[in-house]
Amino acid sequence: MPRTVGVSGRVALMVCGVAWAALGDVPTARVSSAAVASSERALLDRYCVTCHNERLKTAGLALDLLNVDDVGGAPEVWEKVVRKLRSQAMPPAGARRPAMTEYRALTSWLENNLDRTAAARPNPGRPGVHRLNRAEYANAVRDLLGIEIDVRSMLPPDDSGYGFDNVADVLSVSPGLVERYMLAAGKIGRLAVGDPSIRPDTVTYRVPPLFAQDDRMSEDLPFGSRGGLAVRHHFPVDGEYLLKIRLQRAFTEVVRGMTEPHRLEVRLDRRVLKELTVGGGGKGLGPSEQFDYLRNADEGLEIRFRSAAGIVLVGAAFVKEAKVAEGVFQQP
């Protein structure tokens, strides 16, 4: 059988008992991939197939019917073979073993073919099971049930990885977290169904005291408004509700800006529900009465209205008034 052996630049070719030898830089003959695969098959048959065949299936592995020319057809099996060859764990101790050069040649052949197959047909694998994080859970509840929930009060913060809190690999699910999700689902279910027999409840929305309320505060408030607040509130059932407005106070508990009258608009889903006038009522009062008025200037800012169940946009803001008269300047 022809065989090519190369050692230190010396090439010897043996064919039918006749030998030619050449010294120096002689290019190695190109051997077809089929010939190389045939030699690797012979190596497997000599050292491996004795135990790993369809009849014995030692360790559940059969190599006699696998096609060496198509390593990519069974990459999982050949990966196992490469690991055993790389560590020289097979053939087992006491059995006939190949030479070190044969170990390396077969291992390199299999690895190169596996790498070539992986590059041609990349397999990214399967993504991890992705549970909803807090923000995604709140969005899903809003889209499915039409309910805005304060998810931060119901669920703990999510784990983050690489700067993101929606990575499936780091969103763990512990028994405690499952219990919190179950409690949140029960509360959300009660909100979604609605119960006419529920007791009255009070919800307070506050504007941060450091916010400068000298212009339009939100996209949910109309143009030409000043200060105020707009919130999406969930009304549990159809019924009558009471809205109370409390104005911002100074450190002395006195309502600010009450020396002049101001128009305050209350809106429900962007429609004007009622317009109120506040301020400008303390003129002519004594110091004590004027102080009491400034402390309680918002006492009567209450509105009763009916609303259907669901999420409703509720807004309250002052009508913006120019400090200087606008228009064409007229010479006096």
Number of domains: 4
Q: Into which percent range does the helicity of residues fall?
A: 25-40%
Mean pLDDT across all amino acids: 80
Mass-distribution shape: elongated
Distance between the termini: 120 Å
Structural class: alpha+beta
Question: What does this entry look like structurally?
Answer:
By secondary structure, the chain is an alpha+beta fold. The chain folds into four domains: 1-26, no CATH class; 31-120, no CATH class; 134-193, no CATH class; 225-319, Jelly Rolls, CATH 2.60.120.260. It is built from seven helices and nine strands; from the N terminus they run E-E-E-H-H-H-H-H-H-E-E-E-E-H-E-E. The strands form three sheets. It has a four-stranded antiparallel sheet, with no helix packed on it. Strands 1-2-3 form a three-stranded antiparallel sheet, with no helix packed on it. Helix 2 (75-86) packs antiparallel against helix 3. The longest helix is centred in the N-terminal third of the chain and has 21 residues, at 100-120. It is elongated, with a radius of gyration of 41 Å.
